[in-house]
Amino acid sequence: METKQIGFFSLIKEDFSVPFQKDPAINSKIELFFNYPGVVAIVHYRIAHKLHLLGFKVIARILMGFTQFLTNIDIHPACKIGRRVFIDHGIGVVIGETAEIGDNVTIYQGVSLGGVSLEKIKRHPTLKKGVVVGAGAKILGNITIGENAKIGANSVVVKNVPPDATAVGIPARVIDKEKSKEENIPIQKLPDIDKELFRYLIKKISLIEQSIQANPKTTEEETELQHLYENYIRCIKN
């Protein structure tokens, strides 16, 4: 971790200040305790992580279990989280045991930093400083998301993402790195690769149907395909 060490209480004080820097919706300090479960979860994590390092691992896990019940955010006390990390809204966020999160990272609701192995190894992702992870994204395995990279909402990332890049889709694919860096695309305006693919397929099917209508000779394969399509329509209606 590239985090510069500061005092424990200074670190918690800094955690409480992050929403005022990153969320224009906040109006009062009292809101931190009632409307920002991500802040509550991070502060509890700081305490639990300290206990974990001191050898009180069971107590640390109990504290984070209580935090999960309170905030619906699951953070393992052994993971490493840097400074000024902001979990926005936070509901459904999961951060695994060997995950590492750098400074100034922003994570939206429904994000999972999960593992794909049952071995006692580094099995969760590393997020370098400045990363932004969109709502519902899943980042799985011992992979690295480079500095200032953006992960699109609902993307599933299973490979490394280079610094300053933008990754979207299922599985996530890196779009033009230089273009995304120059334009500084906001997380809510990232391109939807899967949507574009479906638009292409729908247009292609439409052209094929027009061609069939112009030449109505029906083959056995086309009849079978029509039956499959009718079965599909029945299934989605039931």
Mean of pLDDT: 86
Tell me the span between the first and last alpha carbons. Answer: 51 Å
Number of E-state strands: 15
CATH architecture of the largest domain: 3 Solenoid
Number of DSSP helices? 7
Question: Structural class, judged by helices and strands?
Answer: alpha/beta
Low-pLDDT parts are none
Radius of gyration: 23 Å
As laid out across the biggest beta sheet, the strand order is 3-6-9-12-14-15
Helix content: 40-55%
Q: Looking at the structure, what is the overall shape?
A: elongated
Order of helices and strands: HHHHEEEEEEEEEEEEEEEHHH
Could you tell me the strand content as a percent range? Answer: 5-15%
Largest sheet: 6 strands, mixed
Assigned CATH superfamily of the largest domain:
Hexapeptide repeat proteins
How is this structure best described in words?
The protein has 238 residues and is an alpha/beta fold. The protein folds into 2 domains: 182 residues, Hexapeptide repeat proteins (UDP N-Acetylglucosamine Acyltransferase, domain 1), CATH 2.160.10.10; 45 residues, no CATH class. Helices cover 41% and strands 14% of the residues. The protein has 7 helices and 15 strands. The strands form 3 sheets. The protein has a 6-stranded mixed sheet with strand order 3-6-9-12-14-15. Strand 14 and strand 15 form a beta hairpin. Helix 1 packs antiparallel against helix 3 and helix 3 runs antiparallel to helix 4.
How are the secondary structure elements laid out?
Elements: H1 8-22, H2 31-34, H3 37-53, H4 57-71, E1 74-75, E2 80-81, E3 86-87, E4 94-95, E5 100-101, E6 106-107, E7 112-114, E8 126-127, E9 132-133, E10 138-140, E11 144-145, E12 150-151, E13 156-157, E14 166-168, E15 173-174, H5 177-183, H6 193-214, H7 220-237
Parallel strand pairs: 1-4, 2-5, 3-6, 4-7, 5-8, 6-9, 7-10, 8-11, 9-12, 10-13, 12-14
Antiparallel strand pairs: 14-15
